[in-house]
């Protein structure tokens, strides 16, 4: 299970009802203040995360047979694109959608098959192929472009980069589009001796890969690249000051995938926030989803802290429970749990609050109160923020790492 829009709407509705119950008896000013400063922004955050989320759009280009379809399959973790297709006769771009129904995610792929039709190094690019590529970039305005090249052929294809850079200049100038492109050096396994694989166990192969990456960075693309992983520089480089934002060697051969997660991370870094959830959820990238969870906790902490600017002193910490129940449910869903109040209740049960069967969200919220580490007598902004942060981090530890951490302990940590 994961996050889906329908369930989110249901959850937001029950959080809203919870708020109404808790706000009973408050005076009108306080209620309005809470709605405007606390519940409104919290719901807006979730709306941004879920309702505004959209499929990432990824465009692939590169010569026929260099592995565009294989890379899509490797990233998606399933066979969605035909590998070793009949060679296309005419250049075209084929847009298609990959769905991950059980993960509530969708990707949009634009495969520009046949555009760089030949693998013969001496054969320059056809005029109409360049036009098709340019028009596809403008039409689909992808989040990321992957330029796929077979590693052993890198040294023969420098002309492709000139053509591509010209296209991108036009796209930038005339259409004001700036689209990050990742150079994917596919078939990394096939350079040198294919038996010396993987590079982690073969220093010679690792050196060979690094040489090619350096050559591409220095001589062909002329970019200042920084290793993405300092311990493994041959996992690839990234840069900011170029149409190309990185060079990543991979193997996308089915059954022998290598370095795909580095590629996935770099794509993720260049995706608009609205496209990240669909991208990472589809791949069950737990660490990336945890990062989304962490940034959500920070935002909710900030929102809770807003309570400090209330025109009248608030003393009732239970005013925060709708916000926190919402946060816990979303953290759980990001970790792959069902998106519902039951997920929040599961957490409460796990960290030692007595939640009986069929407990309602209202009772859950009451129980949650037992967990909230309270510092002062009055509900100040900083007390509200620390309590929310502690609960968020505790829920994150539980859902992502299966660890039971008392929020009180986390609060002690922040106070240090
Ligand atoms: N050794 C090795 N072979 C690969 C790798 N990636 C793809 N291949 C093989 O290369 C061939 C072509 O791969 P495709 O993914 O069909 O290439 P494509 O770029 O989509 O080709 P077109 O659709 O014709 O433009 C297939 O036989 C793949 O199995 C890799 O990383 N290593
Ligand atoms: Mg293909």
Automatic annotation (TrEMBL):
Organism this protein belongs to: Lederbergia citri
Pfam short name (any one): MMR_HSR1
Cellular component per GO, a single term: membrane
Keywords: Membrane, Transmembrane, Transmembrane helix
PANTHER family linked to this entry: GTPASE DER
Subcellular location: Membrane
Membrane protein topology class: Multi-pass membrane protein
Molecular functions per Gene Ontology: GTP binding
Taxonomic path: Bacteria, Bacillati, Bacillota, Bacilli, Bacillales
Protein name: 50S ribosome-binding GTPase
Domain (G) ranges: 59-187
